Amino acid sequence: MNLRAILTTIVVLIAALAGTIWLGRGNSTLETGNSGNPQKSVEDDRPQVSETGPYPKAVVDEELYKFGEMAVGQSLSHKFVLKNEGEAPLEVKKGNTTCKCTLSEMKDNAVAPGESIEIELIWTPKTPQETFGQTATIWTNDPKNQEMKLQIEGTVNNLISFTGDSLGSPNWSLPVMSTEEPVSFTGKIHTKYLDDFKILEMISSNPGLTSSSKPLTPEELKEVDAKSGYGIKITGDPNKFPLGGFMERLTVKTDIPNNLKSEKPDKAHKHADHDGHDHKHDEQAEYKEFVIQVSGNHTGPIRIVPTFGVHWNPKTMVLNLGEFDSKEGKEVTLSMFVEGTEQPLKILSQEIVPDFLKFELKKDDKFQSKTKQRYELKFGVPAGKPSMSFGRGNLANVKLQTNHPNAKEINFRVRFISL
């Protein structure tokens, strides 16, 4: 071997030795740091098994209980019975649990041979679930059964069901308002978990929307697999709604307690305050109320026909301009046919949001009809405006006040995205 090869081998060996020493120092430091305050393991809390015997024997009547169906917010419980069939006291301790778990009292913290205790699992679901499962772990000093898994299973539904229920939010639609005659829709509110409940009050967000209720008949309850419920009739008065699509709210207040274990009130109670006067207290805030979304469309004496390629929704009276280049802008044209008046339609006032939205109404004098008039509607976003979006929740709006006796107010809503 030549001198260069020998020198190279010596350098490699020295580098390897230095690295080994450095790594050894690093590991020594880590071990010293960890050995100072060792963390207590969860396993240390388990009951200790005797090395010589005699031994206890833990026997549970069942390890899985199926609740079946239950309602959101409803607290249900089940008691498992744990018996000691062995020859020594059975030590029992609660381990990890995904629900509330309680153990009945034990003398000297142990179950004597031949005796038993109850282990109660309590579950209060917060949301609907097709299948739910909860588990409680029980530790014992039975050498053959040191860890026991107690389980509960079931299905969670909404406490109250509605016609048109969608993910817990009922949506009802009124028939189209095309004349001055009121229109109505009847839906149902019902439950399979309560023998009885009362509707205390129904409040509408629009004075033109009224409501009434009556208990469901036994036949109607059977159809929806319910114990109790009501039919709710909602009526819309076209004279109190502007033309266009609308979305209103009907708040239904009930006597169902927010805590299902609390009692229902008969009336708002009175008590004497420090000044000696009686004061009423509204307890309805402690009880469940539900909101029904009510949608509809008031077309009245007008009918709108879009030109080719224009996206118009006649049910909601929403014009969708789609996406377009903000540098170029966009403009569309629709035809509007008006009945019920011989006088030309005039705009008395208008509100346009955003204010740069272009709107134009022009009568078609060439259109010949004894019962109708035709108008040309133009909507547009001017070129050169900044990029913006008007969509669900913040639609652009054109509100008109007119001279038509049956179309005094007309609302057009517009959605678009300019890029």
Automatic annotation (TrEMBL):
Q: Where is the signal peptide?
A: none
For region Disordered, the annotated ranges are 30-55, 257-282
Output the InterPro entries linked to this UniProt entry: DUF1573 (IPR011467), Ig-like_fold (IPR013783)
Q: Where is the composition biased (Polar residues)?
A: 30-40
Task: Please list the residue ranges that the record marks as compositionally biased, kind Basic and acidic residues.
Answer: 261-282
The protein in question is named DUF1573 domain-containing protein
UniProt organism field? Gimesia aquarii
